[in-house]
Amino acid sequence: MVNRAQRSSAGGGVGFVTTRFFTFAEGPEKFRLESGEELGPVRLAYETYGTLNEERTNAILIQHGFSGDAHAAGYHHGADAPGWWDGMIGRGRTFDTDRFFVISSNVLGSCKGSTGPCAINPATEEPYALTYPLLTINDMVNAQKRLIDHLGIKKLFSIAGGSMGGMQVLQWLASYPEMVHSAISIATTHRHSPQQIAFNEVARQAIMADPHWKGGNYYGKTAPANGLAVARMIGHITYMSDGSMAKKFGRDPKEDRHPFKFMPQFEVEGYLKYRGNSFVKRFDANAFLYLTKAMDNFDMAGGRPLHEALTSVTAKVLVVAYTSDWLYPPHHSREIVKACKVAGVDATYCEMESGYGHDAFLVEIEELGRLVGPFINKLYENAVRKAEHGLGIRSGHRRDTGDGGGWLKRFGRWLWGGRIVGAAFPG
Amino acid sequence: MVNRAQRSSAGGGVGFVTTRFFTFAEGPEKFRLESGEELGPVRLAYETYGTLNEERTNAILIQHGFSGDAHAAGYHHGADAPGWWDGMIGRGRTFDTDRFFVISSNVLGSCKGSTGPCAINPATEEPYALTYPLLTINDMVNAQKRLIDHLGIKKLFSIAGGSMGGMQVLQWLASYPEMVHSAISIATTHRHSPQQIAFNEVARQAIMADPHWKGGNYYGKTAPANGLAVARMIGHITYMSDGSMAKKFGRDPKEDRHPFKFMPQFEVEGYLKYRGNSFVKRFDANAFLYLTKAMDNFDMAGGRPLHEALTSVTAKVLVVAYTSDWLYPPHHSREIVKACKVAGVDATYCEMESGYGHDAFLVEIEELGRLVGPFINKLYENAVRKAEHGLGIRSGHRRDTGDGGGWLKRFGRWLWGGRIVGAAFPG
User: Fold this and answer.
1) Residue A91, helix vs strand vs coil
2) Which of A332, B37, B256, B271 shows the smallest number of beta carbons within 10 Å?
3) CA–CA separation, B285 vs B233, rounded Å?
4) With bands split at pLDDT 50, 70 and 90, how would you rate the model's confidence at B256?
5) Number of helices (H), then strands (E), in chain B
6) What is the CATH number of domain A193-297?
7) By three-state DSSP, how is residue A17 classified?
């Protein structure tokens, strides 16, 4: 499990990484989905950073957002840009790879290496397209659970994610409460509101209105690029705030002030068109349909009072929302926290001042780290302290051991099983 | 100018009405647009309600929003629904047709009877399509000015409108301050923000992505209905609030709870699709492009400080915004009021509590009337009082005349020229 590229990395980053694949349900017993339909074999793309300790207790599962992938940190060979949450993951970073074993898995249904509608159906040797079964957030989490089982991990030290990733965090708490020691839910909701559904529906209509979509059977032919670009543009507006757009673009004209005939004239128009068109190169239109539908159908408590979905949760929960996020506004997060309190769950709420809208959790990494870092490290230290206490070691002894944490490695194993790798504790 | 249908109307409505047309720039001298291009002949569709007094001083110009038309009040023969602001216009209604002569004119560039891109260009005998010149809010107002001149009106008692109609109200103040006695700006902005531009741009991209659009040359062929429907759906989301959507739809499934394969499943999805598809029957895709672009380019002060565009204004101004309107949020209206104050303009601001979002000015007619009614009637009474004072009549005499307002009809004519038709004044 050791990531060799990490060792050669400089400046805290995890260095070069490669995406791996885990395949299950290869035999006659298929993977059963919430809809009752079955799928198999199922492949998940994933990456890991840091080292899993012997007791397999230091794993943190990172959940990506709607259009994300398994590549959360480090560099792929030949790529200019690092993974999507690189600033959060690495030596001395928020998810410290000197302490933690970080797993990032691509969701089921995606087009980023996992089995989604663009994958080949072995029964027909054609892409699934719309024969792919309807997918839920629950199904994504159940597939991830197979990966976590495969890695031999009984309990995740933490799970963290924003947006659709946050929904997976919440679903993990509801589905596998005994497997989660702590959870970080960021800029998300426990169920999609009609406005959120509406934006997704219009985006889907834009894709399906493209004549190249052809009921989803466009593989090997012309992709519904125009429809997908429009769909992405809609998304982009919801990810930014009015303020962040004003700051980034103002009403700046693109070049020539003379406004003419529906070519992008303002900077914001050119930006949206550019982002829409570049998205087309990296994303599949059918995956867009399935993943947005999964979000729209997400209702963590399934219509029950929300706290009833949280009664078995023992994890410590951190809920983060951003003031200018109007896609998943703070009041959604406050409902989650309230339900946690009603269910007796140890939950902390933090509403962060930001002008970046929903994008903030991907943009304001430093601010997010300042919040998540202490939360996760405090839990880590508590776990270690618990181990010490169980062995009758007073915490004051720590500083005097002088063996660079060696005693921790020896004793920490006891209660919570931590093989501490180069941990540095504040005095 | 007497509207005969009005006389036969019951319950305060103006009864049956018909749309009229005013054509100008028919000769060699064409109508010059802000872009420098010329257009002619130019036709405007308009309706009037109530009676213009002899002195032509009791006219109120109503401005419709983006997809509206001249039909603001009353019924067209054979139609089930009245005009779009019917609840505001009629006997004893906010714009009281017993007092006022109400004019509603369709904007230049629209597809609702005025000369727009779907009109026939007499030079080519083909629809203008994209040979139609680029249009601005300023151009719309300049065309309306021709209509007002044609009606022999030197000064409008008031102008009122919401959304794009509000932009026209503001542009009237900037362009023809001497012609405006009062102005009511509702749920609008003095210039489009990047977010507003972004929504419009995505809607335009949706239209232009439709292969039936064919560079605008779809007349007589298949219209770009799918693209236009998607464009309208985007608009609809921005007109409602998250709260009004939740109230109207919740997460109610349409019929069968079993969510499947991208057919509208939630009520909100079905509603958007229905509204999008019905819009296609009543609106022209090219008009959508031109009118949204006019809004995007709108910048009342043309880059100068806003108050500089208002220095010549003598009108009393009422600015109305709605708390849940996130398309034209209240802070835009507050900027307008602030600039009025800096320019020494008598402006009143009212932020109305509403859950209906931008739609509120079309939905919450009663609440709007409670605000606008006293504003407009106070001005009316002041004007009459001024006339009394000019003739040395003390206001206390009013009650004792006992001739049902006959003295007002006689004397009111003097200063502000009001031929008061059945006015009822509070004691």
Assistant:
1) coil
2) B256
3) 14
4) low
5) 12, 14
6) 1.10.1740.110
7) coil
CB B90 within 8 A of CB B97: yes
Q: Is CATH 3.40.50.1820 the classification given to domain B4-191+301-411?
A: yes
Q: Are A399 and A427 in contact (CB under 8 A)?
A: yes
Spatial distance between the Cα atoms of A387 and A415, rounded to a whole number of angstroms: 5
Q: How many other C-beta atoms are found inside a 10 Å radius of the C-beta of residue A176?
A: 18
pLDDT, position A323: 96
Sign of the four-CA dihedral B337, B341, B342, B343: positive
The shortest C-alpha distance from B188 to chain A (Å) reads 15
What is the Cα–Cα distance from A121 to A179, expressed in whole angstroms?
32
Out of A202, A246, A269, the one facing B272 most closely (by C-beta) is A202
Residues B179 and B149 sit within 8 Å (Cβ to Cβ)? no
Q: What is the pLDDT of residue B353?
A: 95
- Which DSSP state fits A306? G
> Residue A393 — φ and ψ, nearest 5°?
-95, 125
Q: Using a CB-CB distance cutoff of 8 angstroms, which residues of chain B are in contact with residue A285?
A: none
Domain A4-192+299-411 CATH class label: alpha beta
Q: Active-site positions of B?
A: 163, 325, 358
H/E/C letters for each residue in B192-256? CCHHHHHHHHHHHHHHHHCHHHHHHCCCCCCCCHHHHHHHHHHHHHHHCCHHHHHHHHCCCECCC
Q: pLDDT averaged over chain A?
A: 88
Residue of chain A with shortest Cα separation from B196:
A242
Owner of token pair 């570049």: A278
% pLDDT > 70, chain A: 87
SS3 for B59?
strand
Kindly give, in sequence order, each residue whose CB lies less than 8 Å from that of residue A397, ignoring residues fewer than 6 positions away. Answer: A388
For residue B401, pLDDT beyond 60: no
Distance from CA of A392 to the nearest CA of B (A): 54
- How far apart are the CA of B222 and the nearest CA of chain A, in angstroms? 14
Structure tokens at A279: 């998205």
Tell me how far apart the alpha carbons of residues A33 and A42 are, in angstroms, rounded to a whole number.
Answer: 11
Is the pLDDT confidence value at A265 over 90? no
Residues ≥6 apart with Cβ < 8 Å to A80: none
In sequence order, which ranges of A209-263 are alpha helices (DSSP H)? 225-239, 242-248
**Per-residue pLDDT reduced to its tens digit, A79-100:** 999 999 999 999 999 999 999 9
CB contact under 8 A, A206 and B204: no
Q: Are strands A158-162 and A126-127 parallel, antiparallel or unpaired?
A: unpaired
Q: Answer with the residue of higher pLDDT: A400 or A201.
A: A201
Q: Give the tokens for residue B264.
A: 């509208």
Instruction: Provide the pLDDT for residue B387.
Output: 74
Q: What's the ipTM?
A: 0.84
DSSP code at position B133: P
Domain residue extents for chain B:
4-191+301-411, 198-293
pLDDT tens digits for B51-96?
999 999 999 999 999 999 999 999 999 999 999 999 999 999 999 9
Say yes or no: domain B198-293 is CATH 3.30.450.20: no
pLDDT for B397 equals 37
pLDDT of residue A404: 40
